Amino acid sequence: MGDITSFLPILAMFAVVYFFMIAPQMKRSKQEKKFAAELKKGDKIVTKSGLHGKILELNDKDRSCIIETMSGKLKFDRSSISMELSKVVNAPEK
């Protein structure tokens, strides 16, 4: 009985770490992958560095996209597109 009770705090610590750190990170990762897969031509986006633009081309071979900005066209990796800011830019006005 003493052996089991000595492991309970360790098991509780692993459960807390999983539910407060690992599970939310996995959920966020899935959401970001889904967002990157749903991008299409014409979407207004914001990169993680703050660059605003519109998607002109999507390349599935190297997971990149060409973005049109006011200063020209730029090639970015899809993972550099900010999910939260892009949703705000594309949200319909009330």
From TrEMBL:
It is found in: Cell membrane. The gene is yajC. GO terms for biological process: protein transport. Belongs to the YajC family. SMART domains: YajC. GO terms for cellular component: plasma membrane. It comes from Bizionia saleffrena. The chain crosses the membrane at residues 6-24. This is Sec translocon accessory complex subunit YajC.
